[in-house]
Amino acid sequence: MTTALVPKRSSIPFAGSGLFAGKKTSPGTELFLEHYPLIALPDDAHIANICSWCLLLPAENTELKRCASCKIVKYCSQPHQSLDWTQGGHKFECRDIYTPLSPRVLPASVRVAIRLLLLRPRLEKDGKWSDVVRLQHHVEQFRNDPERWSGICLMSKAVKEYSTTDLDEGSVVEFYCRVLTNTITITSMVSPGPEGVGLCFHPLAAALNHSCEPSMEVVFDGRSLMGRTLRTVEEGEELTVGYIDLDMTVSERRKELQKRWWFLCECGRCQREMGKGKGRIV
Fold first, then answer.
1. Phi and psi dihedrals of 132, rounded to 5?
2. Which CATH superfamily is domain 5-35+202-273 in?
3. Where do the SET domain residues begin and end (predicted)?
4. pLDDT tens-digit map of 34-46
């Protein structure tokens, strides 16, 4: 991890851990670049038309080739298929999970959770599994939404069945909630604007907390994940990103954040727009 990033408990109430600037940085500074984020795969709508490794549309006159075994995922080249097999984790899921299910495709969030569990032995060996399990899961908040909770329980059963994990059912539900909470959308710049094409799970990016006046942004180039500053960041300042459309009104933002992440934003922008001084907004 770059010395510009320091993980520790967040300064934002109820936010858990966060990332802080280890030194003063200027606008446009690249704080991290991950060419191989832990998990990056196509979403349900794009699995048939983008390369499952680079997550890009094929070049003109280039035809995507299906995996010969599962016939579900596609690639723009043989080298990219090899990379997804050896580094992406497709070899752990192809023959035992995807092939028997073909042509059915598991939901993207389930595919993320299964791949993570299949990669668990490798991550434990490398000492990186703790980075996954320390992330928040918000099980109790999910449980208080009966309609959503029903779907989570159903998806968690699929995760347990297809991953053949030794975790008990309750632990799998908690793990799946952790995936839902911390997975971010991979966007591609297509006309007329950015479009979500996949899902990414990477503990470093997941540790960034929200602000309606964020200090940095996370952008994608295919599967590559980059975090860069939007303004000058002081040494010791917490690094934040925007979880939602920041062009919404303060009421709309707060409603959306409470619905999706169960918190009321207390950032300086919200306080100013709500006509509040310092202190917790209610």
1. -80, -50
2. SET domain (2.170.270.10)
3. 137-244
4. 999 999 999 999 9
